[in-house]
Every structure is written in C-alpha cells, then in structure tokens.
Write a structure and sequence with these properties.
289 residues, alpha/beta, 8-stranded mixed sheet, two-stranded antiparallel ribbon, globular, binds iron/sulfur cluster
C-alpha cells in the first residue's frame, strides 16, 4: 500500500482505501491549481497496482470503499480500469463503491457502453471539477473543458448509472466577475442536476500562475462578504432536484449543507446570519486546501 506524494481525495472519501493508479493529472494546466505542479503525469505500473491491491486485501479485507487516484484517473483506457475494478471486486468481498476524479473530456472520450461496463464493475461515483459555469473564467484559468462539454459529460455519466459529484470554486471569477461567475455556475449546475454539489473557496497559492496574476494586479480575490454573497447567489439561482449541497471543505469560511432546492431557504438564512455575525465564519488561519 504505497502512496507517492500528498494524499489527494474528496472529503467524502476520507474513509476509503486510496489506490493510486496514475500519478498526477494529465491536464495539469489550471492556473489556480497547485496540486500536481511538481508531478509529471504517468500511468502506474500494473504489476505494482496488483501488488498493492493484494497487500491491501490482507491488511483491510473489509474495505467497502476505494478511491482511485490521482487527479483524473478516468483518463485511463477502459480495459485498464476494468481490470483494476475486477481485481478490487475479487479482493474486497464487501466492496460497495469505487470513486474517481475525472475531467469532462475523460468522460466524453468513453463510450456509453464502456461507462456502463465500468459502472457494472463497481465504479459508482465520479467527482468532476466544474469550478465555474462561466466560459470566460474557464478559458482564463485554462480549464480543459468548456461548460457545455462538462454538462454533456455529467449527463452522460448519469445516463450510465454513475453518481456524480460536482465541485465549484467560489471566488474564481474574481471581484468584478463574482456575480456572473455565480449565475453562470448555477446555470450549468442546474442543467447537470448532479447527485452532489460541493462549493470550495479559492485560495491563491504562491507558485501558481494565478498568484502571479494577482501579484501583477490582474486578478483580485473577492473578500469574505463578497464570497458569502457569491454563495447566496449560487444557491438562489440553482434549480436542482434532490442534490446534496455541501460547503464543508476546509477552504470555506462557512460550512453548510442541505438538499437543493428543498433546503434553499434555510441555507440562505444561514448565509445571511453569517454575514451579520462574522464570528460564525472559519478564521483565516484555519482554512486549508
Ligand atoms: S484538472 Fe484538476 S487536478 Fe488537473 S490541474 Fe486542473 S484542477 Fe488541478
């Protein structure tokens, strides 16, 4: 059970066995993302993957959840993923779900037949970073796909039986583009109607191109109040049916949760209250990626 680098996985996979089947991210170009900047993307040797699964099955035989790393492991060819999922199924008798990160392009590159086969073999949830529904923002931060391609990808994965968790990044539109970013993101998310929606808050990390832009005055990060307003705009404008919303990531100032659109009013009231009582917000020093 070897692991290279810092463990990266969604918060909801905290209890999962994390199995790296790739290293890094095949795109690795988003200007805000420090995660794999020092890592050259590569596909992990299959013999090593087999050894790790065999060892994990001895150490944690009752594992119910597995997460396949790293940044977009769904870019692996379907036959390789099928082999890995088959091994996991035979090694962990109680396995309930396998999760993975994907770009829109990774999903769109697979046929529906391939995605259905992966679902049948246990791939139950895909995590996709939409970040923004505003194509101007997506182009500026060099995201791989535009919003239309990501909407298509999510709908395709859902048609094939996968649960989809979509991640959006508050603050990415900058100060001037904050409202447009929130509204366009709500529009894209509403078309996706994912099973889960997570809002994270942008932290501009030194060494990233976005940090350089910020230093040159070309990008301005919204302040706390503006970020709360952005979240309220997003929540107000989302039209969703039974989507579990969370803002419990360590990067956020305010941890909220509920089902959208059912719990919208309660979530908006909590945001409004936090605007009046800043002591409810996570202090800056406690925020993290
Ligand atoms: S696709 Fe994801 S992991 Fe890769 S660079 Fe962009 S944000 Fe980072």
């Amino acid at each position: 059970m070897r692991y290279r680098g810092v463990v990266i996985r969604p918060p909801s996979e905290a209890g999962s066995y994390i199995l790296q089947v790739t290293y890094g991210c095949s795109h690795n170009a988003c200007t805000f993302c420090p995660t794999y900047k020092g890592t050259k993307f590569s596909v992990r040797d299959m013999e090593e993957v087999r050894e790790d699964i065999a060892e994990a099955s001895r150490m944690i035989p009752h594992a119910r959840r597995v997460f396949l790393g790293d940044g977009n492991a769904l870019c692996l060819p379907a036959p390789r993923l099928e082999e890995i999922l088959g091994l996991l199924r035979s090694s962990f008798p109680r396995l309930e779900r396998v999760g993975i990160y994907a770009n829109g392009a990774d999903i769109n590159a697979k046929s529906e037949e391939e995605l259905r086969d992966l679902r049948r073999l246990g791939l139950g949830i895909i995590y996709l970073g939409l970040e923004s529904g505003d194509d101007e923002v997506l182009r500026r931060v060099r995201k791989k796909d535009d919003s239309e391609r990501m909407v298509e990808a999510v709908l395709k994965a859902k048609r094939c039986g996968m649960a989809v968790s979509v991640i959006v990044l508050l603050g990415l539109g900058g100060r001037e583009g904050s409202r447009r970013h929130a509204l366009e993101t709500a529009h894209a998310v509403s078309r996706m109607n994912p099973d889960y929606l997570s809002a994270l808050t942008l932290m501009v990390v030194p060494g990233t191109p976005l940090h350089d832009e910020m230093m040159k005055g070309e990008f301005e990060l919204p302040g706390q109040e503006e970020l709360l307003e952005e979240m309220a705009t997003l929540v107000s404008a989302c039209e969703l049916d039974g989507c579990v919303f969370r803002s419990n990531h360590a990067s956020n100032y305010l941890a909220l949760g509920g089902v959208l659109s059912r719990d919208r009013e309660g979530i908006l009231a909590a945001i409004e209250e936090a605007g009046r009582r800043p002591n409810l917000l996570r202090p800056e020093f406690m925020r993290g990626l």
